[in-house]
Amino acid sequence: MHSLDLSIVIVNWNSKQFIEQCLTSIRTNVKFARYEIIVIDNASYDGCREMLENKFPDVMFIQSAENLGFARANNLAYGQSRGQNMLFLNPDTEIQGSAIQILLDALKSIPDAGMVGAKLLNSDRTLQTTCITALPSILNQALASNYLRRRFPNWNLWGMRPLYMKKQDVTAVEAISGACMMAKRDLLERIGCFTSDYFMYSEDMDLCAKITQTGTKIYYVPEAVIVHHGGGSSSHSESNFSSVMQRESLTKFFQLHRGRTYSLMYRASTAVVSICRMALIIGAFPLTVCVKGYKFWFNRTSKWSAILCWSLNISRW
């Protein structure tokens, strides 16, 4: 028997300070009583337990003896939750006003809604354009660049057109960010919650794909606003490891949802993109070094070299 309206699950990995800010924002802004908060620590042992015992003693804490990754940690907490609805929330988020209540009202009132997501803002309160997105494809991954997203924000390729509509209404979208995902419990039970094949990256896209396959929809609720500081649980600068892990996880995503052939085509396309990027970076060496410095040029070269080696199966991660 699930006696609560909502269970809020937060996965921690070396994010104690962000967790404290996040929980404070929840306590300040969430006024309805029938909810619980579950924090699961992925073997970081960063003092989160002690902080919760001192400042938030009513929060359920789960200590994992190993780093389970995002998907398995959320599933473990989900298994111990009591809410009729689930909110999977990143530790580096801060709730603004009635955001959680607005999301819950939308999830309950829209007949075909299976999951809802909020408008996410960066730390400086600018719009975080990744709060909604299209599901991954070979084409949108091959063309992915900040320049193209800024230059052509309304392309269907990105799936973020609703962010730029004059009239901001609740809108059905392909996918939402894993930083804030609220879903109905009965639906999560039907699809098995998060797919545990992923350690990090793409598990949110996988969940969106599974929900869409049930015939229910995912809605973007712009009235619900949450600040997502981004990078609170990892390095602010993208490492070679994370760059490769993103693509490794996408390979799993494509294999699960598009088949082995499509997955192999994605890997091959990544090799082509990497070669083109390397050629551009090397060709632009003098200008790049003059404008942004040698370190920037070296980091970009190193990143795409690592991706190329992965795509050609020269190195394993």
TrEMBL record:
Record InterPro entries: Glyco_trans_2-like (IPR001173), Nucleotide-diphossugar_trans (IPR029044)
Pfam families xrefs: Glyco_trans_2_3, Glycos_transf_2
Domain Glycosyltransferase 2-like as annotated: residue spans: 7-132, 144-231
Name of the protein this chain belongs to: Glycosyltransferase 2-like domain-containing protein
Originating organism: Edaphobacter modestus
